[in-house]
Inverse folding.
């Protein structure tokens, strides 16, 4: 019986997937399908994209719209991080965490299993199968497991998890051993995921293309080579489809903005007061929530943002009733029950950093290391919207590079299709049929590129923004969004 293995490489850019930096992955990719026009969802942050991968829904549809966010159905006055503790509290108080069916839940309803193993953040791991504690499948992470008793069982069998280190090879090797010996070797789930956070941690800490980043790429590549060798030795390669995916690309920080301090300086009171604003910083983007969804406050905030050199594309929810100069959140898939009132991508450009990697952005200063020269993501920069997808196995064509657009929302529907499981009727993504053996020729996929624009006269000039999306059929992929403040 076929199975699918998803391998997530956090923060991997197409430009980094070279024979020199990743020889095992590059050689393997040459025999499969490379998606050369693959997209993140916006905001280009990990937890939002992981949920889009595993639900097939845009962020507005699944409700986990950022790494830091305000959930009005949980707490109307406080932004929270999407960590395991806070996410568990959301589940306990509201009765549900995600607003759309998860791949794990769909498989469980059909008597199949999904198991996730990861060494990223505990919030990311939790979102890879949040209901595993009460339904089928499992989530395995250095800090916890779902179901709860599994953690002690695995520690007893495989030993304690190694301490986190800069390249973190010991932890990833430990995760790979659990994945191959226990998850794939014994449980044989219909679908599994391995999440590698090594590169992301390195690029946040020391920059895109830094020595530590290159060492971390080598770690991931070595462990991926070990995984391929195990699949061959065990005879699993013949019936396992492997899909390697990244959640987002990367940029280099050009400058930082203390958004909470800026709001105070601009005269916006804190949450709970008339005219108050809560900001949820997400690296290259910021989510804004106004008190009682007051449109006048949101309009004033939008006009103040548009005057700043660091303000990029700016989106407004339907509830804000077309604030001048903004574009609708629905354009990029953010509209939904938990949509922010305003969402801002920081300004970006395509200049190269000192290691030759393109893309600079402004960034919030928050929990992650943030300063000029360090790595960041979260914006609508084309260098972050473009990410990696490679697929190889019995279900896929061979030796093919695709220029047709694809996105992280396409993983869940494609996995369900491969496994012959129903349940994707409300999914936003599409089955990547042009990549599948026996599927249509790539040239038969009809798609278009569309540009939406808006402008507004503000103090200091005219704010102009443009968002470019690609559309094959009903599915939308964000190519980029940018803005400028031009002389009036």
């Amino acid at each position: 019986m076929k199975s699918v293995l998803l391998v997530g490489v956090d923060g991997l850019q197409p430009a980094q997937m070279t024979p020199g930096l990743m020889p095992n992955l590059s050689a393997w990719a040459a025999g499969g399908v490379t998606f050369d026009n693959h997209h993140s969802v916006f905001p280009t942050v990990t937890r939002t994209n992981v949920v889009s991968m595993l639900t097939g829904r845009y962020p507005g549809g699944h409700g986990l719209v950022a790494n830091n966010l305000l959930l009005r159905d949980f707490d109307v006055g406080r932004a929270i991080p999407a960590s395991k503790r806070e996410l568990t509290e959301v589940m306990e108080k509201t009765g549900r965490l995600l607003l759309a069916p998860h791949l794990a839940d769909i498989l469980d309803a059909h008597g199949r299993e999904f198991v996730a193993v990861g060494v990223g953040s505990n919030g990311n791991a939790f979102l890879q199968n949040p209901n595993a504690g009460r339904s089928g499948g499992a989530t395995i992470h250095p800090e916890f497991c779902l179901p709860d008793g599994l953690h002690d069982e695995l520690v007893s069998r495989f030993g304690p998890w190694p301490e986190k280190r800069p390249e973190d090879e010991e932890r990833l090797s430990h995760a790979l051993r659990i994945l191959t010996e226990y998850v794939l070797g014994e449980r044989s789930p219909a679908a599994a995921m391995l999440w590698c956070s090594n590169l992301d941690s390195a690029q946040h800490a020391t920059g895109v293309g830094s020595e530590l980043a290159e060492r971390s790429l080598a770690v991931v590549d070595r462990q991926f080579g070990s995984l391929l060798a195990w699949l061959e030795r065990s005879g699993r390669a013949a019936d396992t489809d492997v899909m390697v995916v990244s959640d987002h690309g990367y940029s280099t920080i050009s400058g930082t903005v203390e958004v909470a301090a800026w709001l105070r300086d601009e005269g916006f009171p804190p949450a709970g007061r008339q005219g108050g604003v809560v900001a949820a910083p997400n690296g290259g983007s910021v989510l804004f929530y106004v008190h009682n969804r007051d449109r006048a406050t949101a309009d004033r905030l939008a006009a103040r943002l548009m005057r700043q050199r660091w303000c990029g594309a700016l989106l407004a929810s339907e509830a804000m009733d077309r604030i001048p100069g903004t574009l609708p959140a629905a354009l990029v898939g953010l509209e939904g029950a938990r949509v922010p009132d305003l969402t801002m991508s920081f300004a970006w450009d395509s200049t190269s950093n000192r290691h030759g990697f393109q893309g600079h952005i402004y960034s919030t200063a928050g929990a992650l290391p943030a300063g000029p020269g360090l790595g960041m993501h979260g914006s609508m920069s084309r260098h972050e919207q473009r990410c990696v997808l490679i697929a190889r196995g019995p279900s896929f064509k061979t030796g093919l590079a695709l220029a047709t657009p694809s996105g992280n929302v396409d993983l869940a529907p494609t996995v369900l299709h491969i496994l012959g499981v129903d349940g994707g009727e409300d999914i936003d993504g599409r089955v990547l049929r042009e990549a599948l053996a026996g599927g249509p020729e790539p040239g038969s996929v009809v798609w278009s590129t569309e540009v939406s624009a808006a402008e507004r006269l503000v103090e200091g000039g005219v704010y102009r923004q443009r968002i470019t999306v690609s559309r094959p059929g009903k599915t939308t992929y964000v190519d980029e969004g940018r803005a400028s403040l031009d002389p009036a």
Q: What stands out?
A: The two ends are 64 Å apart (CA to CA). The chain has 14 helices and 25 strands. The longest helix spans residues 211-234. The CA atoms of residues 105 and 131 lie 8 Å apart.
